[in-house]
Write a structure and sequence with these properties.
12 helices, single chain, 282 residues, elongated, mainly alpha
Length: 282
């Protein structure tokens, strides 16, 4: 986590502690909780990685197992081909693992592409266009971190071509990769809209608005209650009765956040077991 977030690594040996700078590319995979991806939850909740760590990845793709005859057939043919080979069948235009390794090593060692004026203009315009997507819905669809990612991806694409210049085509491919990754990983399951806050903070704008609604509702419940002491199950039941959408499932974590906010405002005091607190009216 330190390597990914801070691009440094601490080494302690013989009583000497030092921090070294390091840069590397990280390719990682994560399984969802309970081995089943829940489309009604965000990526952060599905894999339960801290947003501060997850947001460090330039591209995040969801690989979901959906029933599709075409893709299922291609996958099955590929797996079967690993164990079956026709006699006297020659395979042409296939790069060996050694050749691919040598190619990547040469590109990383000897190719350092520079961004051209044309590519720079394309990067700026692409970032502005990504930001515009969230204006109407008041959501964050791109941050400066995404711009940094676009620059890295553009340079990597040019390096892959063994080009000394980053051109418009490299930026276009970087934007395409970013759009595909964003649509899959940063889409708010509640609204279906792209919200980068879902990756950077773990909560979308809609989720934050929902917590504010719970704060107002719970404040009203407490004011209307004749008792000075309430419990969370009672609050949940009252919230469900006041919710217009009866199919909406109330997240207990959102309720806890709302209660903590009310406690900070001095409206209530929470006591007893932190998991099942008693709510005292102040």
């Amino acid at each position: 986590q330190q390597l990914h977030q801070q691009q440094t690594i601490s080494v302690a040996k013989a009583g000497i502690i030092c921090t070294l700078n390091c840069r590397t590319s990280i390719l990682a995979a994560a399984n969802p909780i309970n081995s089943s991806y829940n489309p009604s939850l965000s990526v952060v909740k599905n894999i339960q990685l801290p947003p501060t760590l997850l947001s460090r990845f330039d591209l995040i793709y969801l690989v979901l197992d959906r029933v599709n005859e075409r893709s299922d057939r291609r996958l099955a043919q590929h797996l079967v081909s690993l164990f079956y080979e026709k006699q006297n069948e020659s395979v042409e235009n296939v790069l060996s693992g050694k050749d691919l390794t040598d190619y990547i090593t040469y590109a990383r060692t000897h190719v350092n592409p520079n961004i051209t004026d044309e590519a720079m203009s394309e990067l700026v315009q692409s970032y502005v266009n990504m930001r515009k997507l969230g204006i109407s819905n008041k959501t964050i669809t791109a941050t400066v971190r995404q711009l940094d990612a676009l620059i890295r991806l553009s340079e990597a694409h040019a390096r892959m071509r063994l080009s000394e210049k980053v051109e418009r085509m490299d930026v276009s491919e970087a934007v395409r990769l970013m759009n595909v990754a964003t649509q899959s990983a940063a889409t708010d399951p509640l609204t279906g809209l792209i919200d980068m806050d879902l990756i950077t903070t773990g909560r979308s704008a809609q989720m934050r608005a929902l917590v504010h609604q719970y704060v107002d509702s719970i404040r009203s419940i407490i004011e209307d209650s004749r008792s000075n002491s309430l419990r969370v199950p009672e609050i949940l039941e009252e919230l469900k009765s006041r919710t217009l959408d009866k199919n909406h499932e109330i997240d207990i974590e959102d309720v806890r956040k709302a209660l903590n906010q009310l406690e900070e405002e001095g409206v209530i005091a929470l006591g007893g077991d932190p998991r099942k607190p008693t709510i005292q009216k102040l």
